[in-house]
Design brief:
- β7, α7 and β8 form a beta-alpha-beta unit.
- α8 crosses α10.
- The strands form two sheets. Strands 1-2-3-4-5-6-7-8 form an eight-stranded mixed beta sheet.
- Helices cover 35% and strands 16% of the residues.
- The chain has two domains: 231 residues, Aldolase class I (TIM Barrel); 63 residues, Arc Repressor Mutant, subunit A (Orthogonal Bundle).
- By secondary structure, it is of the alpha/beta class.
- Bound molecules: iron/sulfur cluster.
- Iron/sulfur cluster binds next to loops.
């Protein structure tokens, strides 16, 4: 099922069935903290987007498989607002389930009326904003040719006014890059203008594309959350809820999971609802076959997928 994954336990959305309508790493940004690797598509290159009927077909199959799902989340391997049929996709999912539909977006394309109208059909939209001054914003997100963050903020403000659903803004802080008092003061002023329902404060937790992108310590994160106000919370690790899977499905589910984001062994055992003794040999086998790789980041070992070394699992 290349267009649907999970359900995975998301820190913000509970058990989330992921719908991924864009080819791997299709994005208009190239964030230093991205878990998906560097953005390789240059501007003007047109990715091969899947037909909406194929994405909806797989979504329907996943929804009828019996798993408990708190949200159907359009997200995945890049920026979903680049998908040309985002509106029909959200409409189609909502026609097949009463489960709320969420969209995770980098929030940079909201000045487009088409993008806003598509997103307005979702129940929750989770955009990002990591800085409110141009040098910092462009240093973090590295869009080809640069972006004016005032346009990004204007898009967030106009969409917030138009959208009737839940609007949860994510702010990702990087140690020494966007966490000075002056930068946070500007960001707070922008957020006060945007008026999100919630602010989710995050930091670099999983291996980023740039090794020098470091996390902000937890006590400082708590102090910054308090500065942003009562609707702000530091995103905590997910509680240990599990959904069991059959052993035979495990290799493919591990591959699909690490394709979407780097995972620790604990992440995998929680996701799969399996014991360490079951998951660990399977991970070792995939490592040995070169299907997945491992990487140490901040003292924790993550399992990652490198598409360049994709091989058959036997
Ligand atoms: S973090 Fe999101 S917005 Fe940034 S480069 Fe990766 S996919 Fe794109």
């Amino acid at each position: 099922m290349p267009y649907v994954y999970g359900p995975v336990h998301s820190r913000r959305l509970g058990f989330s069935l992921g719908v991924d309508p864009v080819p791997p790493k299709t994005c208009n940004l190239n964030c230093v903290y991205c878990q998906l690797g560097p953005t390789s598509l240059s501007r003007g290159t047109s990715p091969a987007y899947p037909p909406v009927s194929a994405v909806l077909h797989e979504t329907r199959k996943a929804l009828t498989s019996g798993s408990t799902v708190d949200h159907v989340t359009v997200s995945g391997s890049g920026e979903p607002t680049l998908y040309p049929d985002l509106g029909p996709l959200i409409r189609g999912i909502k026609a097949m389930t009463s489960t709320p539909v969420a969209v995770m977006t980098n929030g940079t394309l909201l000045l487009s009326r088409d993008v806003r109208e598509a997103l307005c059909q979702a129940d929750a939209v989770l955009p990002s904003l990591d800085a409110a001054d141009n040098p910092t914003f462009n240093r973090i997100t590295r869009p080809p040719g640069g972006l004016d963050v005032r346009d990004v903020i204007a898009g967030l403000v106009v969409f917030r006014r138009q959208f009737c659903g839940q609007f949860w803004l994510e702010v990702l802080l990087i140690h020494g890059l966007n966490d000075t008092s002056e930068q946070l003061c500007r960001l707070k002023a922008a957020i006060d203008t945007i008026k999100p329902d919630r602010i989710h404060l995050n930091t670099v937790v999983r291996p980023p594309v740039s090794d020098w992108a470091l996390p902000v310590p937890s006590d400082r994160m708590a102090a910054i959350a308090s500065y942003f106000g009562p609707q702000c919370e530091v995103i905590a690790d997910p509680p240990r809820k599990v959904q069991g899977v059959a052993l035979g499905e495990m290799p493919e589910l591990i591959i699909q999971a690490v394709k979407r984001r780097p995972m620790t062994m604990q992440d995998l055992t929680e996701l799969l609802g399996a014991m360490l003794a079951q998951v660990s040999p399977c991970v070792t086998r995939l490592l040995g076959a070169g299907v997945i790789q491992s990487r140490l980041y901040q003292g924790r070992r993550y399992y990652i997928f490198d598409s360049e070394s994709e091989r058959e699992v036997t």
